[in-house]
Amino acid sequence: MALSYKVIIPARFESNRFPGKPLVKINGIPMIERVWKKCIQAIPEKDVHVATDSKVIYDYCSDNSINVIMTPECLTGSDRVFQASLTLDADIFVNVQGDEPLINPNDIKSVISYSRNAPNSVINAMCEITEEMDFHSSAVPKVVVNMKNDLLYMSRSPIPLTKNNTMVKAYKQVCIYAFPKATLKKFCSTNH
Questions:
Q1: Which residues pair with 51 in a beta bridge?
Q2: For the whole model, what pTM was predicted?
Q3: 3-state secondary structure 15-36
Q4: Nearest by Cα to 98 from 156, 43, 49
Q5: What is the pLDDT of residues 28-59, one digit of tens each?
Q6: What residues contact 161, with CB distance under 8 A and at least 6 apart?
Q7: Which secondary structure element, helix H or strand E, spans residue 106, and what is its range?
Q8: Which residues pair with 68 in a beta bridge?
């Protein structure tokens, strides 16, 4: 039996660092719409939904034929994806963060492909850090994995460091995650 997928784009209007960010226009197109357009290049439009607690974002999406779900106030984007999963039917829910207007549709397809091969696992996309500035930035989540690419640790701090506090080889999160529905529920029911 083939697995079914939904891409959920969490979008929060009241960001601490940048209120209204999802609707900020980039070359005339709001960021949330740019992310949505990238997602529908990866999977069918009917399977892509914005999840928000903002009436302003909800109305914008609705007025522009973007599937949108109103979710309650949530602590994290993953919590918002979980809330959306309560009203949608799918085996796997893919979280594509709403502030990634340059997301590569092929990265979304890759995460889905990995999840097909490991349907009971959470898939967390990552790539190598090529700029030392990103390595030291607290805005960039860093990841440490074992030899099998299993996630061991994530931090906004620069990890792993050498004894001289320099970067040799490091990876960052790409902000795409695939959760099996039951695992998403379990993850969001824990205190995080």
A1: 10, 69
A2: 0.88
A3: CCCCCCHHHCEECCEEHHHHHH
A4: 49
A5: 999 999 999 999 999 999 999 999 999 999 99
A6: 167
A7: helix 105-117
A8: 50
